[in-house]
């Protein structure tokens, strides 16, 4: 006699056989004790599985679990940090729960005691007012209670903390504490801190201040790295010259035309305050050509008295011009030409030429160039233009 | 009687409409959808974890993740299929991460029948055998034995071949019968 295979028995058990196959299997089971006992064992397993895994869940427990899900989903939709499952499902310690009934009002406590916490039961559906978009089906009380009273949830509440009341009620009124939200992580958490916004505000204010300063005073010249030696010497000498000039100007009594408000004063002051282009940009000082007015020199004021005009003519500036060449007669470009009194420095141009305006009298001119021996010469400068020539020999 | 569909495993019923509304942001539709299938899903979670506390957590996480990823719901099948696969994937991931339940691990309050002993305590051999099975096999048993789905429907839920389903169910029944009878 041929017994049923396991597949046939399994299919018969699951009602997967139809027609003749089902009838033949049923007749075989009725006649074969071995297959019948096997079939009964499998039926017993199926019944046990249905009893174990097919139980109908308790309605109240299902309502509570669904409420947890709805709270988490609502918080997620509102952009709030969704409570973890462990935060929702807080077991109740039996020793603590009866101490504080749900109706009892939490008293105010001293600040020293505000750090203490207690646990008290949370009513079913707690936290619903924080998620007003929860549907009304959630608020429906469960009708079937086949199990004994469910275990109430507990939440930890700082005792006496007035901010712990759920709706901001003053202490003394009944209310439940709100579970504090967890700190947000990532960029949202950083942007939610007050210090981040204060820092951003400070940076914006600083940037606005810098921009206003640049608009008011101009962009400062910033040089990186160590400057060449000749530039450092030039700037140092210029600083010395500016100091002397300042002292001389301070010693000179102000003229009537230099009073505040006069047009000549503003013009002269602007000329005095205007920096020398050769200092700012390390270029040779611009010297006026023959017959061309000096833009730097102050214009003679028609309002000045005759004595002043006479004094101005006595101290009329002359010009020392010249050229610097090497021993072979080749022009030297960039040679430094120093005037000792008043202290000035210019550089020679591509043709080795230079021009210096100075008061008439004996003036000492010193020529320096890298790799060549310096030359110092005293010139007697009269009114007008003095032409001279310097020849630099190689340094030993 | 099921308020949504008499056969939630095979008939989508209003599932598709509720999914579309939930995808547009309708929380009421979303919660209605979750409530429709919560009892079936709870049975699945209980079978996948064989533990009350773990089943509660799996039930919660499955529904929360389902609400987050509603756009992945296939439109040509009941939502319950998708929920079952989601719960199984979560259970497998947790089992790999946390390991199987140890004998000393505290379990949650297991539901009792008529105030008597917990349901699982009456046949420890069957429970021990079930605990050794992988989550996918437990899902097969629940779908075929408890939910009484046909092989084709089980194959559609698990996205496996029907012949493979029959063979595996036969092996599982032989294994369980051998353990229980012995």
Describe this structure in words.
The complex is a heterodimer of chains A (396) and B (182). With 396 residues, chain A is α+β, with helices and mostly antiparallel strands. Chain A is built from eleven helices and nine strands. In chain A, β4 and β5 form a beta hairpin. Chain A starts with 5 loop residues before the first helix and ends with a strand. In chain A, 17% of the residues are buried. Mean pLDDT of chain A is 65; it is low at 90-180 and 251-314. The longest helix of chain B has 20 residues, at 79-98. Chain B is globular and about 55 Å long. The termini of chain B are far apart. Mean pLDDT of chain B is 78; it is low at 108-119. At the A-B interface, α1, α3 and α4 of A face α2, α3, α4, α6 and α7 of B.
Based on the model shown, name its key terms.
heterodimer, A: 396 residues, alpha+beta, four-stranded antiparallel β-sheet, three-stranded mixed β-sheet, 11 helices, B: 182 residues, mainly alpha, Butyryl-CoA Dehydrogenase, subunit A, domain 3, 9 helices, 64% helix, 0% strand
Rg of chain B from C-alpha positions? 17 Å
Distance between the ends of chain B: 39 Å
Q: What would you call the shape of chain B?
A: globular
Q: What is the N-to-C succession of helices and strands of chain A? A: HHHHHEEHHHHHHEEEEEEE
Strand content of chain A: 15-25%
Question: Please, what is the average pLDDT of chain B?
Answer: 78
Morphology call of chain A: rod-shaped
- Number of DSSP strands of chain A? 9
CA-atom Rg of chain A in angstroms? 51 Å
Share of residues in helices of chain B: 55-70%
